[in-house]
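Before a colleague's protein record goes any further, I have to sign it off. I want your independent view on whether this chain really folds as the C-alpha cells say. The record follows directly below this note.
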Amino acid sequence: MDQLDGLRAFAVLLTLLTHFTHSHQGVLRLVSSEHPGSRLFFMLSGFLITGLLLRYRDDINRWGVVGRFHIRRLLRTLPLYYLLLLGAVTVNMGHARDGFWWNATFLSNVYLELYRPPFTAVTHFWSLALQEQFYLLWPFIVLFVPRRVLLPIMAAFFAIGPVSRMAFLALGLGNSASSYAIGCSDTLAGGAILALLADRRIGDPTLRKTFVNWCFWLGVPAFALLLALNILRPNHGIFSVWSDTALALVYIWLIDRAARSIGGPIGALLDARPVRYVGQVSYGIYILHPFMSIILFYALKAMKVEFPDGTFWWFATLAGMSVAAASLSWKFVEVPINAFKEHFPYSTARKNERRMRGKKTGGREQLSTVFVGEHATPVNLALSQNEAIPD
C-alpha cells in the first residue's frame, strides 16, 4: 500500500500550510478547518494500527502482542520526541519548561486545555499525546473484544466524536473536545472500521464497498456545505461539531482508494518517489517543523535581512528546512533506533518460524507479505514479516 505514504505527504503538507501561512486569509481558509492534516494522520493511524493488530487476534499470546506493540511504538516515537523536548527545555525555548512534565508524560493536550499556555515550539505535541493515549486502549479492544461486537464497538467510537463535541459546546467549553481522544474518535475509529472491513479473514468485501460509497456520497457534500457555512459564519457551532465527521467520511473513501492503488495522474503523484519519501519522513517533518520557524527567525535577525512571513517564499523556505531536518533525523536517529524493533516481533511463534526458516536457508532469506489490493501474496524479500504494514 505504497500510496498511503503519498497520503502522509499530503497530510503533512496540509499541516505546514496551516502553520507556515496566514491560513485564515483568502482561499487558504479552506485548509484551516479544524486541522485537516492532523485528522488525516489520525485516520491513517487508526487504519494501519487496526489492520496490523487484526493479524494477531488468533495469536497464542495476545498479552505478549500488546506488550511488544507498545515497545515498538515507543522505539518509533520516543527517541526523537524526547530529544527535541529536552533540547527545548535546555534553552527554555518559548517557555517550554513550564509544561515539561505534561509533555514528558504525553499529557500535552490536557495541559493545553487546562492552562492555555502561549504558543511554543512544543505546543503541537498535543496531537502526539492524543495518539499515544489512543494507543493505550485500542490494542485491547482489537485483540480481546469478541468478533461479533467488534464492528459495533468501533461504530460507537465513531459516533462518540460528534456527540462529545456537541456536549462540550453545550457546556460552554467551546472546541476543547477536539484536544482529547474522545473528541477525535470519529477520525481514529473511521480508519479502524475500514481496516476491519478490509481484513481478508474477518472482513466483508461487500459491506466494505457499500460503506466506502456511502462515506463518499455523504461526506463530500456535507463537508462542502460546512466549509461554505464556515466562510459565511466563522466558528459556528455546527461547523465545530460536524466538520471532523464529514472530513472523516471523505478520508475513509480516500484511504480506501489509496490502499487499493489509485490510477491516473493522482495515483502517479502519490506513487512518485519524492512524494512517498516525504510521507516516509513525515513524522520527523511534523515534530521538527515548529523549530524551523524559530531558527529562520533568528537567522534572518542575525543577518539583518527582512523576509515577510506568510508569503510563498516564507512557506517554501520553512517547508524545505523541515524536510531537510527530517531527512537527517530519519537517517541518523530514527532508522538506527527502529532497527531494534526486530528484537520485539509481535508474534513469538513467527519469530521461531523465521529462526527455523533462517536455518534452512542459511539466513539468506526471509518470507515477507506484500499486500496487493485485498489479497496477500508471499514473496521472498529481505524484509521483516512484521513490517508488511508500516507501524
About this structure: The beta strands are 366-372, 375-381. The first helix runs from residue 3 to 20. The two ends are 13 Å apart (CA to CA).
